[in-house]
Design brief:
By secondary structure, this protein is an alpha/beta fold. The chain is built from six helices and six strands; from the N terminus they run E-E-E-H-E-H-E-H-H-E-H-H. The protein has two domains: about 120 residues, ATPase, nucleotide binding domain (Nucleotidyltransferase, domain 5), CATH 3.30.420.40; about 25 residues, no CATH class.
Amino acid sequence: MGDYYVGLDVHSRESVFVVQQADGVVIGRGCIPTDLTGFQQLRDQHALPSGTPVALETGTLAFFAARTLAAIELQPIVIDAHEVRAKAHRPTQKSDRRDAFEPCEGIRRGVYRSLVHVPSPTISELRETLSRRPSQLPPAEVAVDRIPECLGEIERPGGSRRGDDKPDRRRGDTASY
């Protein structure tokens, strides 16, 4: 049993795949459902060993597919879609089969450089939580606008207060700006 390489063109319902041997011979093509059972079917049907590289382009479902493939012990490699298109043999003649073949051939030959890091589910969940949390600090503009107000409350020697002669931007005084 030799090395295998898999290319996937991931869509919301069905994904197109190509399986190649290390020498470039295509040993499998077809469609599978884009879910855990479909990816398991691909692995089992072609007897893919653990750690088999599976190449796919960046896209809406790339992280889902990469995490699902990693869960069944395959090695997902997410490649920037612009690089795949730039290095494709026929970039203007797109088809699902070609979109699966190009990444497969590219990782077999080692031509791609723009590989995308897929964060772990824990890190993604943490990022999501932090993005939805309300900020505890006021925005920077509010803090900057309060500086003249704070300085205006400080009395200067001689009885004058700093800021008395300055226009108030919050009220719309822009005469000296």
